[in-house]
Amino acid sequence: MDLKKTETNRYTELGEFLKARRNKIKPEHIGISVGTRRRTPGLRREEVAQLAGIGITWYTWLEQGREINVSDAILDSLSRVFMLTKEERSHLYALANKSLSMQVEPHQTVNDSVLNFFAKFDLLYCPAFITDGYWNLVKWNKYAAFVFGDFSQLPTNEQNTIHLMFCNQDYMSLFEYWEYHAKEMLARFHATFAKHNDDPWFIRFIEEMKSKSDSFASWWALHDVNSMTNIVKEVKHPAVGKLIFDFVSFDIFDNQDYKLLVYNPDHDSSIKLSKVADFSAMQERYRRN
């Protein structure tokens, strides 16, 4: 791979992105009066530079795709001037080769298409969860409740996957190799925190977890980070014995802080869980009769 060419393409893309957003902003929307002879479809470069508090020459170089470093303060100013959405702002930072610390958006909803898809995991005997940007449980199916416990019986502030893995003894005891999975999960959580390190919730939660779990405190200090890899989880279930799952995580496209977590059982585990389903169906028919 030609790294120099890749860098040049990134700067070119940054310039084109800024130009496109400049052309989309109508001057009257930000209080600039325009005459009938104005030919620019959106803002002029000098208007952007003035509104963002940067030099016109420097901004022109940016749009031309020159290889210059851009500070976070300038990116924030340009985001404000161009009224960028969360996704557009994140894209701008990526093009400028910058990391973006953003707060999680609370109280998002899960759309019906995702919920309909989520319901199908019951037919496959797959425990499944939806988590928010803070790794709180938003929704879980009946197999998740059977395998990992009835989370509805927990206080709301304990319905969190990190809290469960480090503070809930019943949940922790399910994992055959708890230390391995706890470290792996914490490394992924650390990577999430890096994207939201100014969010007060994360700061408060991490301090709370340090006080509750010595393992969390000591491993957090290692600063290990990791994204998803191939993960196999072995569970020691008190009722059906050993269960083996491939663990998969999906981003939810219109709620980027939300994740769909699926435990896909191997053949033997699927058979065990299918018998649980048959038993539950028999119980339900008995209750109705």
Structure commentary:
This protein has helices at residues 3-24, 45-52, 56-63, 72-81, 86-95, 112-119, 142-148, 161-167, 169-172, 178-195, 200-212, 214-220, 267-288; strands spanning 128-131, 137-140, 231-237, 241-252, 255-265. The protein is an alpha+beta fold and 289 residues long. The protein folds into two domains: 3-95, lambda repressor-like DNA-binding domains (434 Repressor (Amino-terminal Domain), Orthogonal Bundle), CATH 1.10.260.40; 112-288, Beta-Lactamase (2-Layer Sandwich). It has a five-stranded antiparallel β-sheet with strand order 2-1-5-4-3. Strand 3 and strand 4 (241-252) form a beta hairpin.
Task: Write the topology of this structure.
Layout: H1 3-24, H2 45-52, H3 56-63, H4 72-81, H5 86-95, H6 112-119, E1 128-131, E2 137-140, H7 142-148, H8 161-167, H9 169-172, H10 178-195, H11 200-212, H12 214-220, E3 231-237, E4 241-252, E5 255-265, H13 267-288
Antiparallel strand pairs: 1-2, 1-5, 3-4, 4-5
Helix pairs in contact: 4-5, 11-12
